[in-house]
User: Fold this.
Amino acid sequence: MPEPPYRAVLLFGAPGVGKGTQGQRLGRLPHFVHLSTGEMFRSLDTNSPLGREVRNYTERGELVPDELTIRIFRDAMQRLIASHRFDAKQDTLVLDGIPRNINQCRILDREIRVVRVLHFVSSNEEAMVARMKRRAQLEGRKDDADETVIRHRFEVYRRETEPLLGHYRSDLILEIDALGTPDEVAAAIEKGLLKK
Ligand code: AMP
Assistant:
Protein backbone atom coordinates (compact mmCIF):
# COMPACT_ATOMS: atom_id res chain seq x y z
CA MET A 1 0.00 0.00 0.00
CA PRO A 2 1.45 3.44 -0.87
CA GLU A 3 2.11 5.78 2.04
CA PRO A 4 -0.92 8.00 2.81
CA PRO A 5 -0.26 11.51 1.51
CA TYR A 6 -1.00 13.83 4.46
CA ARG A 7 0.96 13.95 7.73
CA ALA A 8 -1.35 14.51 10.68
CA VAL A 9 -1.43 15.07 14.42
CA LEU A 10 -4.76 13.91 15.87
CA LEU A 11 -6.47 15.69 18.74
CA PHE A 12 -8.40 13.25 20.87
CA GLY A 13 -10.55 13.72 23.92
CA ALA A 14 -14.06 14.11 25.29
CA PRO A 15 -16.20 17.16 24.46
CA GLY A 16 -15.07 20.31 26.26
CA VAL A 17 -11.48 19.23 26.98
CA GLY A 18 -10.02 22.11 24.97
CA LYS A 19 -9.14 20.45 21.64
CA GLY A 20 -10.39 23.48 19.70
CA THR A 21 -8.40 25.99 21.74
CA GLN A 22 -5.19 23.98 21.55
CA GLY A 23 -5.79 23.07 17.90
CA GLN A 24 -6.02 26.74 16.99
CA ARG A 25 -2.82 27.47 18.89
CA LEU A 26 -0.97 24.63 17.19
CA GLY A 27 -2.34 25.78 13.85
CA ARG A 28 -0.59 29.14 14.31
CA LEU A 29 2.83 27.44 14.39
CA PRO A 30 4.74 27.31 11.10
CA HIS A 31 3.87 24.23 9.02
CA PHE A 32 0.91 23.18 11.16
CA VAL A 33 -2.61 23.50 9.73
CA HIS A 34 -5.63 23.14 12.02
CA LEU A 35 -8.74 21.50 10.63
CA SER A 36 -11.79 21.05 12.83
CA THR A 37 -14.76 19.10 11.51
CA GLY A 38 -17.04 20.62 14.17
CA GLU A 39 -16.07 24.11 12.92
CA MET A 40 -16.54 23.02 9.32
CA PHE A 41 -20.06 21.92 10.15
CA ARG A 42 -20.84 25.08 12.12
CA SER A 43 -19.68 27.27 9.23
CA LEU A 44 -22.22 25.77 6.79
CA ASP A 45 -25.09 28.02 5.82
CA THR A 46 -27.93 26.85 8.07
CA ASN A 47 -30.45 27.76 5.38
CA SER A 48 -28.87 25.47 2.77
CA PRO A 49 -30.14 21.86 2.49
CA LEU A 50 -26.69 20.58 3.50
CA GLY A 51 -26.54 22.93 6.49
CA ARG A 52 -30.00 21.85 7.62
CA GLU A 53 -29.16 18.17 7.25
CA VAL A 54 -25.96 18.53 9.29
CA ARG A 55 -27.67 20.62 11.98
CA ASN A 56 -30.18 17.84 12.49
CA TYR A 57 -27.37 15.67 13.87
CA THR A 58 -25.17 18.23 15.59
CA GLU A 59 -28.03 19.76 17.58
CA ARG A 60 -28.91 16.36 19.01
CA GLY A 61 -25.29 15.49 19.77
CA GLU A 62 -25.31 12.66 17.22
CA LEU A 63 -22.48 11.99 14.78
CA VAL A 64 -23.03 13.31 11.27
CA PRO A 65 -23.14 10.30 8.88
CA ASP A 66 -19.70 9.16 7.72
CA GLU A 67 -20.34 9.58 4.01
CA LEU A 68 -21.21 13.24 4.50
CA THR A 69 -18.42 13.85 7.00
CA ILE A 70 -15.76 12.35 4.75
CA ARG A 71 -17.04 14.27 1.73
CA ILE A 72 -16.91 17.57 3.62
CA PHE A 73 -13.46 16.71 4.99
CA ARG A 74 -12.13 15.95 1.50
CA ASP A 75 -13.62 19.16 0.10
CA ALA A 76 -11.94 21.13 2.90
CA MET A 77 -8.60 19.44 2.11
CA GLN A 78 -8.90 20.27 -1.57
CA ARG A 79 -9.62 23.91 -0.71
CA LEU A 80 -6.61 24.08 1.64
CA ILE A 81 -4.36 22.65 -1.05
CA ALA A 82 -5.77 24.76 -3.91
CA SER A 83 -5.34 27.96 -1.85
CA HIS A 84 -1.76 26.94 -0.90
CA ARG A 85 -2.60 26.90 2.80
CA PHE A 86 -1.54 23.26 3.03
CA ASP A 87 1.44 21.73 1.25
CA ALA A 88 1.61 17.97 1.81
CA LYS A 89 5.40 18.01 1.33
CA GLN A 90 6.15 20.19 4.31
CA ASP A 91 3.02 20.73 6.40
CA THR A 92 1.28 18.72 9.11
CA LEU A 93 -2.46 18.69 9.64
CA VAL A 94 -3.81 19.15 13.14
CA LEU A 95 -7.03 17.16 12.96
CA ASP A 96 -9.61 18.14 15.53
CA GLY A 97 -12.76 16.01 15.71
CA ILE A 98 -11.98 13.42 13.08
CA PRO A 99 -11.83 10.42 13.02
CA ARG A 100 -14.74 9.91 15.40
CA ASN A 101 -15.57 6.23 14.81
CA ILE A 102 -13.87 3.11 13.47
CA ASN A 103 -15.26 3.48 9.95
CA GLN A 104 -13.84 7.02 9.63
CA CYS A 105 -10.59 5.73 11.07
CA ARG A 106 -10.26 3.07 8.38
CA ILE A 107 -11.12 5.48 5.57
CA LEU A 108 -8.62 8.05 6.86
CA ASP A 109 -5.89 5.42 7.20
CA ARG A 110 -5.58 5.67 3.41
CA GLU A 111 -5.45 9.49 3.39
CA ILE A 112 -3.47 10.54 6.44
CA ARG A 113 -0.26 9.38 8.08
CA VAL A 114 -0.67 9.84 11.83
CA VAL A 115 2.57 11.06 13.40
CA ARG A 116 1.18 11.94 16.86
CA VAL A 117 -2.04 11.49 18.82
CA LEU A 118 -2.62 14.10 21.53
CA HIS A 119 -5.02 12.56 24.03
CA PHE A 120 -6.56 15.25 26.24
CA VAL A 121 -7.48 13.62 29.51
CA SER A 122 -9.79 15.01 32.14
CA SER A 123 -10.81 13.18 35.27
CA ASN A 124 -13.48 15.74 35.99
CA GLU A 125 -16.48 15.51 33.69
CA GLU A 126 -18.41 18.15 35.64
CA ALA A 127 -15.64 20.70 34.98
CA MET A 128 -15.99 19.93 31.26
CA VAL A 129 -19.76 20.39 31.39
CA ALA A 130 -19.31 23.76 33.15
CA ARG A 131 -16.78 24.80 30.48
CA MET A 132 -19.21 23.91 27.72
CA LYS A 133 -22.04 25.87 29.30
CA ARG A 134 -19.77 28.93 29.48
CA ARG A 135 -18.83 28.34 25.84
CA ALA A 136 -22.51 28.19 24.90
CA GLN A 137 -22.91 31.73 26.19
CA LEU A 138 -19.77 33.01 24.49
CA GLU A 139 -20.17 31.29 21.12
CA GLY A 140 -23.89 30.59 20.95
CA ARG A 141 -23.40 26.87 20.29
CA LYS A 142 -26.75 25.16 20.63
CA ASP A 143 -25.19 21.74 21.33
CA ASP A 144 -23.43 23.26 24.37
CA ALA A 145 -26.52 24.95 25.79
CA ASP A 146 -28.55 21.84 26.57
CA GLU A 147 -27.20 19.61 29.30
CA THR A 148 -28.98 16.51 27.96
CA VAL A 149 -27.24 17.00 24.60
CA ILE A 150 -23.90 17.53 26.35
CA ARG A 151 -24.31 14.27 28.32
CA HIS A 152 -25.28 12.45 25.14
CA ARG A 153 -22.11 13.70 23.40
CA PHE A 154 -20.03 12.25 26.26
CA GLU A 155 -21.77 8.92 25.76
CA VAL A 156 -21.14 8.97 22.00
CA TYR A 157 -17.50 9.84 22.70
CA ARG A 158 -17.06 6.95 25.12
CA ARG A 159 -18.82 4.45 22.87
CA GLU A 160 -17.57 5.41 19.39
CA THR A 161 -14.47 7.55 19.68
CA GLU A 162 -12.45 6.66 22.78
CA PRO A 163 -11.90 3.02 21.67
CA LEU A 164 -10.09 4.35 18.56
CA LEU A 165 -7.08 5.10 20.75
CA GLY A 166 -6.38 1.37 20.53
CA HIS A 167 -6.09 1.69 16.76
CA TYR A 168 -2.91 3.79 16.94
CA ARG A 169 0.58 2.75 17.99
CA SER A 170 0.92 3.41 21.70
CA ASP A 171 4.27 5.21 21.26
CA LEU A 172 2.47 7.84 19.14
CA ILE A 173 0.01 8.70 21.91
CA LEU A 174 0.77 11.59 24.21
CA GLU A 175 -1.47 12.04 27.23
CA ILE A 176 -2.18 15.65 28.12
CA ASP A 177 -3.83 16.75 31.37
CA ALA A 178 -6.70 18.91 30.10
CA LEU A 179 -7.58 20.56 33.40
CA GLY A 180 -5.01 23.38 33.38
CA THR A 181 -5.30 26.86 31.89
CA PRO A 182 -4.85 27.10 28.09
CA ASP A 183 -1.24 28.26 28.63
CA GLU A 184 -0.47 25.36 30.98
CA VAL A 185 -1.97 22.83 28.56
CA ALA A 186 -0.08 24.39 25.62
CA ALA A 187 3.17 24.15 27.61
CA ALA A 188 2.50 20.46 28.34
CA ILE A 189 1.90 19.81 24.64
CA GLU A 190 5.10 21.59 23.65
CA LYS A 191 7.12 19.67 26.23
CA GLY A 192 5.60 16.36 25.09
CA LEU A 193 6.15 17.06 21.41
CA LEU A 194 9.77 18.09 21.96
CA LYS A 195 10.56 14.99 24.02
CA LYS A 196 10.58 12.73 20.99
P1 AMP B 1 -17.04 19.30 17.93
O1 AMP B 1 -16.96 20.77 17.65
O2 AMP B 1 -15.83 18.53 17.52
O3 AMP B 1 -17.48 19.01 19.35
O4 AMP B 1 -18.22 18.73 16.98
C1 AMP B 1 -19.54 19.23 17.10
C2 AMP B 1 -20.49 18.24 16.46
O5 AMP B 1 -20.20 18.10 15.06
C3 AMP B 1 -20.43 16.82 17.01
O6 AMP B 1 -21.22 16.66 18.18
C4 AMP B 1 -21.00 16.02 15.84
O7 AMP B 1 -22.40 16.17 15.76
C5 AMP B 1 -20.40 16.76 14.64
N1 AMP B 1 -19.09 16.19 14.23
C6 AMP B 1 -17.88 16.78 14.32
N2 AMP B 1 -16.93 15.98 13.81
C7 AMP B 1 -17.55 14.86 13.38
C8 AMP B 1 -17.12 13.65 12.76
N3 AMP B 1 -15.83 13.42 12.48
N4 AMP B 1 -18.05 12.72 12.44
C9 AMP B 1 -19.35 12.93 12.70
N5 AMP B 1 -19.84 14.03 13.29
C10 AMP B 1 -18.94 15.00 13.64
